[in-house]
């Protein structure tokens, strides 16, 4: 049978892994796809690198636009990244009637709505398993495996860099700055780690998952995003004393009034499986009404794990290459005319529990003043640690876990606590999720 011809745009880490795995497992992949899948042309500005990776087994060019216009190409794989030229290339490929496979989470989170409409009009597929959680097949699980379920919520450790840093801070007692330095030395963090440590990368992925889980448009601009760069190692220690671990979670939750879409450091009970995901690994926990909780775990990045997801998409597209577009799995799991523009709730409307740490004068009545303020805001306390003042010091830490409340109420109470004469500086607030 005639092979499917693939044009690969970008042969960096993921592109190289895709090319290597596709070549190594060609026979097995052909058996599954029903016909050979061949990367016949590779576009990359670094032709020397492309030549080294491909070993002369593909035609090379530095003109990506020539690839998306090549009449011999059936599927375009976009692994360039970013939202500028990548968006132009993807839209041009679609306009030319080509299917697209991409690992570009930023592109989809910010321009996915436009891209999917264009693909629908041209009757082509856009596949993006590799855009979220590397080699973990979470997109397929949400889009197909859990299709009988009303998804209630999902929570994911979906950035390996931040999970590695948090694991180092917990295991070795390091500060954020020292753990980041270790991550950079080992290649887990970029020279400029902003997208990772400030939660932007995780928010792109959470946006994509929320759209598929709830049948809503991509709404990255409405996501609440908070990273780990201001996290203090002392809070990791106190969380452990209370039976919790701190992870950067991407959370999407269905509520009657809308959808919560947020990324932030989160305390999780240490008995939860997801709380024990360490190092650079990823995990996503999904709660469906019929199936209950399901957990997806594995490598969230890397050449071959992510390349594995790219190739899975290539096989899917190959299988459905000649099928009726009306009978393919919709891009966002729901039929296009059934995608609903449900509002994303502001962070002030989120309902969750809280970890509060405050530095206070070690004298009678301080705790009573604080608990009175919380009670006036209808916030009850689940657990409390009051440390003894160190020798020669007059200040100490109070750490509290609250029951669930609306964020605006928590913020209002914190503002009142911070103006007490007995409270030193700002109150540290972290959100808590039981994930049960």
UniProtKB/TrEMBL annotation:
Matching SUPFAM superfamilies: ACT-like (SSF55021), Glyceraldehyde-3-phosphate dehydrogenase-like, C-terminal domain (SSF55347), NAD(P)-binding Rossmann-fold domains (SSF51735)
Domain ACT: 355-435
Pathway field: Amino-acid biosynthesis; L-methionine biosynthesis via de novo pathway; L-homoserine from L-aspartate: step 3/3; Amino-acid biosynthesis; L-threonine biosynthesis; L-threonine from L-aspartate: step 3/5
Pfam families, alphabetized: ACT, Homoserine_dh, NAD_binding_3
Binding residue positions for NADP(+): 9-16
Gene Ontology annotations of biological process type: methionine biosynthetic process; threonine biosynthetic process
Binding site for NADPH: 105
Gene3D superfamilies (alphabetical): 3.30.70.260, Dihydrodipicolinate Reductase, domain 2, NAD(P)-binding Rossmann-like Domain
Recorded GO MF terms: homoserine dehydrogenase activity; NADP binding
EC number(s) from the headed UniProt entry: 1.1.1.3
Keywords from the named record: Amino-acid biosynthesis, Methionine biosynthesis, NADP, Oxidoreductase, Threonine biosynthesis
Location of the active site: 205 (proton donor)
InterPro entries, A to Z: ACT-like_dom_sf, ACT_dom, Asp/hSer_DH_NAD-bd, HDH, HDH_cat, HDH_CS, NAD(P)-bd_dom_sf
CDD domains membership: ACT_HSDH-Hom
Positions annotated to bind L-homoserine: 190
Similarity field: Belongs to the homoserine dehydrogenase family.
PANTHER family xref list: HOMOSERINE DEHYDROGENASE
NCBIfam families, per the entry: PRK06349.1
Protein's recorded name: Homoserine dehydrogenase
Organism of this sequence: Thauera terpenica 58Eu
């Amino acid at each position: 049978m005639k092979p499917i011809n693939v044009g690969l745009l970008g042969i960096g880490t993921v592109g190289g892994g895709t090319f290597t795995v596709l070549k190594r497992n060609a026979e097995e992949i052909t058996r599954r796809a029903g016909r050979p899948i061949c990367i016949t042309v590779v576009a990359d500005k670094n032709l020397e690198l492309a030549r080294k990776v491909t070993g002369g087994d593909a035609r090379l060019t530095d003109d990506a636009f020539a690839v998306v216009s090549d009449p011999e190409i059936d599927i375009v794989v976009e692994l360039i990244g970013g939202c500028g030229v990548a968006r132009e290339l993807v839209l041009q490929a679609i306009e030319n009637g080509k299917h697209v496979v991409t690992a570009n989470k930023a592109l989809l989170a910010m321009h996915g709505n436009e891209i999917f409409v264009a693909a629908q009009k041209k009757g082509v597929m856009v596949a993006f398993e590799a855009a979220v959680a590397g080699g973990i097949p979470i997109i397929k699980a949400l889009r197909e495996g859990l299709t009988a379920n009303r998804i209630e919520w999902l929570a994911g450790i979906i950035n390996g860099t931040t999970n590695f840093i948090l694991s180092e801070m917990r295991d070795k007692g390091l500060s954020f700055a020292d753990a980041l330095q270790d991550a950079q030395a080992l290649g887990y963090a970029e020279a400029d780690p902003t997208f990772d440590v400030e939660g932007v990368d995780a928010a792109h992925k959470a946006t994509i998952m929320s759209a598929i889980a709830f049948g809503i448009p991509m709404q990255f601009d409405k996501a609440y995003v908070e990273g780990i760069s201001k996290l203090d190692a002392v809070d990791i220690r106190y969380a452990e004393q209370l039976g919790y671990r701190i992870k950067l979670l991407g959370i999407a939750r269905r509520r009657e009034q809308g959808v919560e879409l947020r990324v932030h450091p989160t305390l999780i009970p240490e008995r939860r499986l997801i709380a024990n995901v360490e190092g650079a690994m990823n995990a996503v926990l999904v709660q469906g009404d019929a199936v209950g909780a399901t957990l997806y775990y594995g490598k969230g990045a890397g050449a071959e794990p992510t390349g594995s997801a790219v190739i899975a998409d290539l096989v899917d597209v190959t299988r459905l290459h000649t099928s009726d577009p009306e009978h393919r799995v919709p891009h966002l799991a729901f039929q296009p005319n059934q995608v609903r523009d449900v509002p994303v709730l502001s962070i002030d409307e989120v309902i969750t529990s809280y970890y509060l740490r405050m530095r206070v004068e070690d004298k009678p009545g301080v705790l009573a003043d604080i608990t009175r303020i919380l009670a006036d805001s209808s916030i009850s306390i689940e657990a409390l640690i009051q440390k003894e003042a160190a020798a020669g010091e007059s200040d100490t830490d109070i750490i509290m876990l609250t029951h669930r409340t609306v964020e605006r109420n928590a913020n209002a109470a914190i503002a009142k606590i911070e103006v007490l004469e007995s409270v030193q500086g700002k109150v540290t607030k972290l959100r808590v999720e039981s994930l049960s």
